């Protein structure tokens, strides 16, 4: 398989994974979870997978005293994990004038742990990508294509005047037909949005568990390390190397078939970790940012639920070109809407042009006006019949 075909296949898989539905059924923060975050992590998993299974994730050097083959050593050390270099060896390396230890400092005793989790990184990243898509898949199922029933014609910018008027009336009558029947729809969305918040915080904890408890403050430690002075860094281990060392030690047995067990030592270069350390560093900063934005979105949803005035304000922000004479009718329309009806209107604004959305709202106000006149006439007729009967 040549590099060109691998690259094309990589782009094709990412494109398939990242395809967006033309009908908008969610908000911006929701999309950050299932589209941006999930697609970015899926891309990272493909890169890590390609490097691990189509490249050379590990290369070891050693003094072959007992006849061990280098390929066997590479395979053994990769499958059975490696540990940090011995502190004494690192001190000697640091004394050589032309050999720079990229990790600086020396590993602490609690950092001298096995690195078996490296080979699971692409699979863990793929698992993360799938988990971040779960709330959207659930919401798409619960949504049931309600917004798709409105159609996509109102998203076109070049629509003849007569067609746009007819289309606005069509949308308005359809919305009026489902008025006051959308609260369950809205609460299903709120549940899926809350699931996003739970997942991002849960994923931080799960990733910390996967990386042996060294992810929770990973970004903060890296930030402090690189923003410190050279003298400060000289005696301290680089947090990126602590979590994903590029040079490690491996002990492997040889000579077992002769009845004598010999243990050889190798120094291994894990080139894959030059990618992994940056993937998880970016993840740390992004997860923190996404968690903050998700909490902010949840707070806005809370305001939408408890404050009808805030809901009216958000819709009026999309209708800035309406005249002052139309404001009372618009307020009357929005006052009649339950929170689920407001949610449908908000999604309609995302699935139509600004011009068409204003036309739809205007058609809705006309329908309300007609209904009010009809109701007034009906009441007058009933009163007249009562008087005549008396």
UniProtKB/TrEMBL annotation:
For membrane topology, the record states: Multi-pass membrane protein
The protein's job, in short, is: Structural component of the gap junctions.
Q: Give the family, as the similarity comment puts it.
A: Belongs to the pannexin family.
MF terms (GO), sorted A to Z: gap junction channel activity
Q: Which UniProt keywords apply?
A: Cell junction, Cell membrane, Gap junction, Ion channel, Ion transport, Membrane, Transmembrane, Transmembrane helix, Transport
Q: Name one GO cellular component term.
A: gap junction
Which biological processes are named by the entry's GO terms? monoatomic ion transmembrane transport; phototransduction
Which segments cross the bilayer?
Answer: 284-307
What is the protein's major site of localization? Answer: other
Compartments reported by the entry? Cell junction, Gap junction; Cell membrane
Write down what this protein is called: Innexin
Name its species.
Tigriopus californicus
Return the InterPro entries for the record. Innexin (IPR000990)
